[in-house]
Every structure is written in structure tokens, then in C-alpha cells.
Amino acid sequence: MKERFVPRFLPRSHAFVLTTVVVIVGRSGLALATDCTTNPCPCTYICPATGDCVIGSQKNVDPGAKIDCSGRDITIGNSGSLKVTGGDLILLADDLTLNGPGGLIYAVEGTAEEAGTVEIHLTGSLLLAGKVRANGAHGGGSIYIDAAGNISIPENGTDGIEADGTEPDASGGDIVVRAGGSMAIHDPIHAEGNTSGESGGGSVELRAGGDIDVSEDGHLSAPGKTEGGGVIILKSEDGNVTFAEHIDVDGKGPTGDGGTIEIAAGGSIAINGQLYARGGINAGGGTAAGGEVVLEAGCGGVTINASILTVGGQLGTGEDGGSIEVESAGDILVASGVLLDTHALASGGDGGPVRLAAADLVSLVSGSTIDSRGNSTSPGRGGDVSIRGCRIDIQSAVTLDTTGAEGGTVKASATAVPPAVGTQPLFVSQSASLRAKGASTAVDGRISISPLTAKKGKCSNNEAIACVIDQDCTDGCLTGDCLHANPDTQGVTSQFDLAPGTLADLSLGECEATCD
Known about the structure:
Number of helices: 0
Strand order of the largest sheet: 1-4-7-10-13-16-19-22-25-28-31-34-37-40-43
Radius of gyration: 27 Å
Structural class: mainly beta
Shape: elongated
Largest sheet: 15 strands, parallel
Low-confidence stretches: 1-34
Helix content: under 10%
């Protein structure tokens, strides 16, 4: 798998930073000059000297101009715009409003075939009913928006922010949007590579001090073609992330690996729209791998109400599924009908890993599926599915599949000390299906259900007899039910396609209440 694209604005550290220092330099490293008498340019470069600053027509800005309207509110009307060609535009203001759908701030590619940059720094808030664009025929440009207050992008029937590659081989650009307060996204944001040629996806990064709410009209996309999908990051420092649309970082060429999606919140995460990080989509004979999805929440937990797809190697040969990792200081819930899919589509490809780790309850609701299959052609190996929590609840008709030419592993580890009788921390429904079998000519995988302490139950028809499964209850009496054993498999093992190991995992720590 080739090295992942790292956008220029994304820090390699995951530390949350809202403070920005801007140094304005030219492409050669020298200070840029403009037609302003000074640089930064005074606000009178685009606005009247006094009163409200309302821009109602197109204003062309010199490349490299840094326009200082600090302390003033700016409104760009429905017929107004700020435009820079072949360079950078930097704007400092208090509040900024772009009326829609026609209000526009944009950078246009110049004769040097290099897309421009739009930077907006606000001490107040942003209302973006219009558009901010930095598209380019030879690659998308860069958009950077930093507001100390709230950011709102209402639904207006058009794309809110875009930095696309518009011609064959043109990759997507970089978009960074930061809010000290909350963020409400109701129009699309995208940094897409062109659908033809050697393009790659760009990057979209949304960070907020408070909540991030993305509605059904606010899809985020950074797909690419041969060079693969891009990077999309959403991070709320102290609030919640609610996502109702889709995120797309697919790789759509024969070698186009899936990209990366990261969502983090100090509170909760709710995934109500599908996440796509697939590799090699719509490409035959390729060697593309699936991408990666990482979700990390605080005490509010993670609720997954829509499918996450990181499959790899569609119609290709020898490449692997991607990965899904979910971590929570609270609960993790995978809703009914949801598919977490990291399986390998390509001949001989391995399934990718799925990891769910919660400080409290991990609940796989009836009818949900984790598909980490390896391809059935050797050496395709099933992936590794790991579920770890204080408590684990695997409900009816849940499927965990790590089969392949070689089987993978399924491991469920409950870290709670067994509580009172009747409240077992590790439950697997008898109608669930846990599979780790290899093809007949290859190697089986492994299934392990591991509580901190494996505790025997009692036979319902003779409490003097200890039991792990119902068959134990045939010793000296009629068959009854095995009650209150931990792990609780409803007294049967038919839900396992390989006999599970049920020994205690002594490496597990006791459950700690971190979210009182």
C-alpha cells in the first residue's frame, strides 16, 4: 500500500489548536507586494471608510493582498464577491456574512497553472449562505477559515465550500474550517480529485470548540481516482459530533486506495450517514486497498446508525480491506441493520481489522453485521474483530464474520468483575453468528469469548449441578437450562462456527467508572 496523502494544513499531532499565526510570503519566500499603499491593506481597499461594509459587486483583489478589516463586520451581498487570480487572498474581520446563493469569495487559477488560496480570520462569527471556492484545472487550491465564534453554513442548494480539481489528473485541494464555538454544516464541503486520470482526493478538516452538527445536506467528500481518496477530519474539543449525511474518501482508480476518515469528540458521536473509504471502486484488475475510519468519543459514547464501508480491491487482485476503529470513554452502540465492512473483494486479499473498545457497554443490536472476510482464494485471510468493554451485549441475528481461505479471529473481552447473579457482563445470543472458519484446504481461525472471570452457572432443574452449557445439565437429571454463567451464551454453542475458547483473560483490568 502506498504512503497516505497528508494535507499541508493537517498537523501530525492530534492536539486541538485554535490559535493561528499567519506569515505572508510569496512563492519564492519574499514578502508579497500589492497595489495597496501598505500590506496589510487597509479595509478601505474593499470597503467604505466608515459605516457598514457591504460589498454588492465584484471586487478584484491583487494576489497576495492581506486585507485588514479587524473590528469591522463585512457582508458580501447576493451579487457581491471578492476575487483573486493566480495568488492568495487573506481577509481579517470581526463577523462575516455571505448572502446566498450568490455571495462569493474565490481564488482562480492563474497563468502559472497554480490554484490560489483563500484565508479568512475572524474575531467573530461566520454565516456562509454563499460560497467560498478555490477550484483549479491543475489541482484544487487551499481554503482556511478560522472564526473565534460560531460558524453556520445554511442549506442553500449549492456547495458551500469547494477546492476541487476540475480537469483530468487534477487532485483536490485543502480545506480547513475552525470555530472557537459551534459549527453547523448544512451545505456540502468538498475537495474532490477529478474523475479522470491520476487525480487524488484532497483534505477537509473541521474543528470546533463546541458541537459540530452536519445535516442531511452537508455531505463531505474528498474522493480521488488513481492516486486514491483523501483525508476528512471532524473534531469537537468539548462538544458532540452529529453527522447525518455521507462522507466519501473513496479511491476510484485501479490503484486508488481508500482514504482516511477521523471523527473525534469530547462528548458524543452519532453517525447517521454512511462513511465510505473504499479502495478500487469501479476499477477492474486493480490493486487498491481499503482505507481507514477512526471514531473516538468521550463519555457521551458512540452511536453508529449507518454503515461504514472500507472494503478494498474491487475486482482486483491481491489487495486488502481497510480498517475500522471505534473507541469510547462511554458506550458504543451499533444499531440494527448497520454493516461495518472491511472485507477483501480482491482475489487473495485479506480482510481488514475491526476494533470496538468502550469503557462501559458495547452493544451490537439485533441484525447488525461486522464483515471482515478475507477472500476465499488463497492466501486470503479473514481479518481480526476485537470487541472489548466493561460489558458486551451481542444480540440476536448479529453476524461477526472473519472467514476466508484462512480464518481470522473474533475476540470478545468483558472487563467487568462478574456482578450479581442474572446480570452477566458478557452475553452472546444463541441466534448470533460468530464465524472464523478457514476453507477446507486452509487454516481455521479462532474465536475467544473472555470475561475477566469465567464463572459457571447452575442448572435450572438441579441447582446442585454447575454448568457452562445446557449439556452439562444432563448429569443425573433431565436436561434443563444453564442459568447465570459468565460468559452467557444462552446455554448453547451453535452460534459459533468454531468452538470458542471461554477461559478467563487474566490480563483484563477491572471496570472503572470514568464517566459518573
